[in-house]
Amino acid sequence: MKLRRLHQLDSVRGLASLSVLLHHLWLSAPLLPLLFVYSPVRIALGGHQAVLFFFILSGFVLALPFLADQGPSYLSYLLKRVCRIYIPYVISLTVALLLAYRLSGHSPAFNGSFFQAFWQSGFAPGLILEHLSLVADFNTYAYNTVFWSLVHEMRISLIFPLLMLTVARRRIGFNLLLCLVLAFLGSLGDLLPLGTGQGYHTSYSDTVYFASFFIIGALAAKHRSLLIALYLGVTTRTRWLAFGAAVLLYGYSKYGADKLGGPAGRLLEDGGTTLAILVFLVMALTSEKTIRVLNGSVLSFLGRISYSLYLYHFILILTLAYALREPLPGPLYALIAVLGSIALAAAAYYTIEIPSIRLGRMVGRRLTRAEGGETPPLRRAG
């Protein structure tokens, strides 16, 4: 039986992409009153939390075909993944390179302390080649800071079918222990010989760290029936308490972690965020009201364009900073940044993403026919 697409999870990804946009908007031009920033509504500005949400969602969605014995062959899986991630990425990189070349000599019209780190590298051949590889350890500040997460997305995608063998064969205790070990080792960062860390979170130790979140997502997919049963088995009051706790963990785990610092602080912060994300994920899978809201036309549209929104919003923010002679009034700048990013994302989705997705599906079907419909070698075991 063909897997049913969970469209509400696309909407969740769209909200996460919007959160990253608002996070960068806040960094470039703080417009919101401090009451908003320090209130629970601050979860809308959680850029780092949103990226962890991306990783857990990727693990969840990628795991479903393997868990349903519908996992493709490794080559088919990889080519579809490349078409889905890499082609739109390379085109957005090209756009960023051209704009950086054209505007890098300009002084930013506002918040120079924030923007001076970006678009100052010019056409550095070595750096461009590292960007094109998408798996190297490189300076993602150069052209588009959001690229750092795609480095890990691609690296972990390369080994995800192997991770699924462990997730499917082993009990939950073993898999959770594996997550803890990976997170601990990865959090040691440059103490391990796993990369120079010269980029923005693109070291190989960071990939080890973030792989644990893909596994968490895959485990949530494997045990989703249990999670849903737990949610349905408690009272409405308990569900509201869980939601409130999740909002607080998502928004404020960082404050407790800052006092510890180092690997322990990082594990505390992201551990609290992960618990919150799991609560939100179960709600998106189970709560009829939540599903109805997420499947509304506006959020569904935001979900469809989420990847392009993630790729292009920071390019537009940098363009506004370097192309303008004088800073815009704050509200007007925010309005242009948000609406312009959504418009750019929609254009990129229809002209770049959809053809890339169709190409990946076509390649996958042809490989499946070429394999004669035989059982793929990397499928769920046990």
Automatic annotation (TrEMBL):
TM ranges: 12-37, 43-64, 85-104, 172-192, 228-251, 271-287, 307-324, 330-352
Acyltransferase domain residues: 7-349
Main location group: membrane
GO molecular function: acyltransferase activity, transferring groups other than amino-acyl groups
InterPro entries, alphabetized: Acyl_transf_3_dom (IPR002656), Acyltransferase_3 (IPR050879)
Entry annotated with the keyword Transmembrane: yes
Short name of any one Pfam family annotated for the protein: Acyl_transf_3
Localization terms from the record: Membrane
Any GO CC annotation of this UniProt entry: membrane
Any one of the GO BP annotations: lipopolysaccharide biosynthetic process
Keyword Transferase appears in the UniProt entry: yes
Keywords, in A-Z order: Acyltransferase, Membrane, Transferase, Transmembrane, Transmembrane helix
Family of this protein: Belongs to the acyltransferase 3 family.
Protein name per the record: Acyltransferase
